[in-house]
Amino acid sequence: MHVIQLAALCKVPDLHSRGYQRALSPLLQDLGCLEHDGVFIESLGQSVQGTVSVVVADNLAAHSLEGFVQSFRAGYVYRFCKATREEIQSSAVGDGEFTPRTKASHDHDLQDVLQGDGHSQFGVQRDCVLRESLQCFHTITGFPPDVLHDLFEGIVPVELALCIQEMMLKYFTLEYLNKKIVTFPYQHADKTDKPHPIPKNFARKKTIGGNGHENLTLLRLLPLMIGNMVPEEDGFWNVLMDLKEVVEVVLSPKFDEDSIQYLQTKIQDHRQILQEVFPEFRLFPKHHYLEHYPDLIRCFGPLVHLWTMRFEGKHRFFKRVIYDTQNFKNVLKTLATRHQHVVAYFLNTPSFFKPHQQITDVSSVLVSSLPEVA
């Protein structure tokens, strides 16, 4: 967590009133210098140039920074293709009916916006400030999806609420499920990420709530909690088990073409069974994002390396500083100062740059001298 560095802090009202260009101006100047001049590495005897590869953000922040529309209720609300909210209800990405966004098509749409009356064109409202300032960055290839907000704080809690509500009518009560959640013998990291009891009003809210860690743990351990109470052929149970398998594959740290094809098949199967079991359910935009994951993995690599989970954890530090200090004057300076003090502390620890395992002595032996093992 401490290797995540602080680049800039800005209040949301200032961001809305001044815009990204003004708010990120110091950072963009440094990044421009890194692109053009680079950083001189003494051991190499030369300068090494760099740039921004990708920007990790949730969907709302990504759309805001990219220059796309920030409403996900109607129109062209997807940054990976030119689909509408209504079209995704009847057609899947695998059907090939949605036009994917490319660098060329995005540049064309952006020119139409800039030369027109300012109205959005296929969801494009303005240019991305990073693309305006950096030569090697493009909007279409610079914003990967976020597994945390798409799945664990989006699809998973909603579908858990859908299926649990129906299964409670047949197999168990909410009190029974919550008792299982509370008394389950969590081990290792699950002790920290154990889910909270499901609230009584979850059916009205149409989601079980909770954070991403908790929802991931609940989905993964749910078969051990109530699997003995639900028949294997139950449709609601199969929806959750299909979703569980999709999640496990998405979180894989490595992919080859076979595993990507398998993921694509499982996502298609999940969509089909979800719409069969819940014919009145309207797919969320995040369901459509999920259908793009196979192609996006080919573009960005394993998405688990690009999610916002670690950055959400980093945010907790700043929230804790505000809570502990109770100082609301010049908040940005307070946060930045406290953060740099913590960074300085860890940089000064002897073990910060050392690997977890260190070898102090090495000796060579002949293989023939080793004892035989039966």
Q: What's the short story on this structure?
A:
The protein has 374 residues and is mostly helical. It is 52% helix and 2% strand.
Number of domains as seen in the coordinates:
2
User: What's the helical proportion of residues?
Assistant: 40-55%
Number of helices: 17
Largest sheet composition:
2 strands, antiparallel
User: How large is the share of residues in beta strands?
Assistant: under 5%
State mean pLDDT (0 to 100 scale).
Answer: 91
End-to-end CA span: 45 Å
Strand order of the largest sheet: 1-2
* Radius of gyration over all CA atoms, rounded: 24 Å
Element string (H = helix, E = strand): HHEEHHHHHHHHHHHHHHH
Would you mind describing this structure in some detail?
It is a single chain. Helix content is 52%, strand content 2%. The protein is an all-alpha fold and 374 residues long. The chain contains 17 helices and 2 strands. A two-stranded antiparallel ribbon has the order 1-2. It is globular. It folds into 2 domains: 12-133, no CATH class; 147-306. The chain has helices spanning 12-23, 25-36, 59-66, 87-90, 103-115, 129-133, 147-167, 174-183, 189-192, 202-205, 212-226, 235-250, 257-277, 285-291, 293-300, 309-325, 331-347; strands at 39-41, 46-48.
Main features:
374 residues, 17 helices
Task: Describe the secondary-structure layout.
Elements lengths: L11 H12 L1 H12 L2 E3 L4 E3 L10 H8 L20 H4 L12 H13 L13 H5 L13 H21 L6 H10 L5 H4 L9 H4 L6 H15 L8 H16 L6 H21 L7 H7 L1 H8 L8 H17 L5 H17 L27
Antiparallel strand pairs: 1-2
